[in-house]
């Protein structure tokens, strides 16, 4: 089969096409420009952010674009009996797509929020633009060092127990730092598994909150490309002292994502 492509490989055309495809993720607009402790964000700076809509309730969970047909979110967004009503995903206010398939990780454990990940297949592919772009998936070998600055975005509540704000106008962004796994595990009484990571501020004041679930924890890598380090999963309250946000660790589930999205 591959011998038929020999001339293209020799000329470099196939290689160039492959490189262009691989380099397409993790780019964003660099124009100047609620999450608890966050600030209003220019949505084009976070073009992989998506909003999961449920009928009259509007925005319920976040998700991240990872290809022209697939998004990734949190498994716990799809557990109740109303999951079938998650009919639309809105991509940065400019594209609306129907969801035709939801794949929840088979090992998802609701009791401890382990393997908290789900894949969403859109009915029709999305055309990428400056407003809609996929975020890069970090391979299993990528390491995000403790102390690394990352960003969490979403349309959720801006304080604990508050109502969601108007999602269509106020995408929120907060700057957080990766927290040492053993430190976080101690703070949460050994509930942090190898499929989880922690990020935030141990002094409190900055965190994801209700409605941000399933959204991205994005970190930069080489070439100023953005990688999906985590998926908003759980925590104790919102922005409390010594209670950082807990995220699904994408590197631990990279192979599963690739297998199920072809």
Outline of the structure:
The protein is an alpha+beta fold and 262 residues long. 12% of the residues lie in helices and 29% in strands.
Note down, in words, how this protein is organized.
The chain is α+β, with helices and mostly antiparallel strands and 262 residues long. It folds into two domains: 47-133 and 255-261, Trypsin-like serine proteases (Thrombin, subunit H, Beta Barrel), CATH 2.40.10.10; 149-251, Thrombin, subunit H (Beta Barrel). Helix content is 12%, strand content 29%. The chain has four helices and 13 strands. The chain has helices at 6-11, 13-22, 181-187, 254-261, and strands at 39-40, 49-53, 59-65, 70-73, 88-91, 95-104, 118-122, 149-154, 172-179, 196-200, 216-220, 226-234, 245-249. The chain has a six-stranded antiparallel barrel with strand order 8-9-10-13-12-11. It has a six-stranded antiparallel barrel with strand order 2-3-4-7-6-5. Strand 5 and strand 6 (95-104) form a beta hairpin. The radius of gyration is 18 Å and the shape is globular. It starts with 5 loop residues before the first helix and ends with a helix. Residues 1-23, 31-40 and 164-168 have low confidence and may be disordered.
